[in-house]
Amino acid sequence: MESFKVATYNVNSIRSRLHIVIPWLRENSPDVLCMQETKVEDSQFPVSAFEEAGYRVTFRGAKRYNGVAIASRNAPTGVIHGLEDDGPPDDDRLITVSFPGIVIVNSYVPQGRDRESDHFRYKLGWFERLKHFFDSHWSADAPLIWCGDLNVAPKNIDVHDPKRLLGHVCFNPEVWEAYKNTTSWGLEDIYRRHHPEEPGRYTFFDYRVPHALERGLGWRIDHILATSFLASRSIACEIDLAPRAAEKTSDHTILMAEFDRGKTDGQI
DNA sequence: ATGGTAGTAGAACTA
Question: Quick check: A208 CB within 7 A of strand B?
């Protein structure tokens, strides 16, 4: 394979989304698919569905909320669950896998509920904790990808109605600052690298907005970021809207990035 | 300004 493909998908319950995830894996054959909101305990995770499609799957979940998983062609050489600091581990929100020459950090960043709430303060702190997580494990010149449902739309062009939505927990100056502080560790938004200043490109369409997908009423809150080593070797990054248009869909869709393997001296 | 739907549940919470 010439390229290394990484995708991210907030599935909103993996058991309710297998009819979309498994065919998508077969058709797109990414090397790695990061999933969020799997909403399943580890003992109930549908491992065999992935294995039958030719993927390993590494995961950590809880009964009703959160849950993260990573499907991969190859077995990871290392796995880290959670944030590994003095705070709540949040191992159902953060999972990291390593392969020879590449690290994949998959996160489901806390949504924040309400800007006045402790949940929002927790969200802001989470970005800071994540920056520390990166800093304590890796150098910014390592080949590393951070992806997932990051619950932040970084710019006006990342939401359909910036005036009305300003102040939302995923769209306000405080969350922009927290996100920017984390990315300042050395991570670049790969979608924007390939689609600079392009408005109207979204990964999330609220179930509660009638015909949100058809009307283009979405948010770009799922992201794939990479350190400069990988960013400079990225070939493409696209949002696939087909999963959102499918029957029994998640409210999110799939984002995928492709990296050139030939120029990495066999590192990935 | 509110509520809209979908998920896990088997009422109420989360997003």
Answer: yes
| Residue A209 approaches strand B within 7 Å at CB | yes
The reported pLDDT for the residue numbered A2 is 85
Please give the mean pLDDT across all residues of chain A: 96
Reference A105, options A149, A145, A161; nearest CA is A145
* Residue A224 pLDDT greater than 90, yes or no: yes
* b/e A116-143 (16+ beta carbons within 10 angstroms → b): eeeebebbbebbebbbebbeeebeeebb
Q: What is the pLDDT of residue A15?
A: 98
| Nearest nucleotide (C1') to alpha carbon of A113 | B15
Spatial separation of the C-alpha atoms in residues A217 and A23, rounded to whole Å: 26
Domain count, chain A: 1
Instruction: Please state, in angstroms and rounded to a whole number, the distance separating the CA atoms of residues A197 and A192.
Output: 7
Which chain B nucleotides are covered by protein, judged by CB under 7 A?
Answer: 3-9, 14-15
* Overall pTM > 0.90: yes
Domain of A181: which CATH number? 3.60.10.10
Which residue range(s) make up the domain with A22? 3-264
| Nearest-angstrom CA–CA distance, A169 and A192 | 22
Residues contacting residue A239 through CB under 8 Å, at least 6 positions apart? A191, A201, A202, A203, A220, A253, A254, A255
**What distance in Å separates the CA atoms of residue A109 and residue A225, rounded to the nearest whole number?**
14
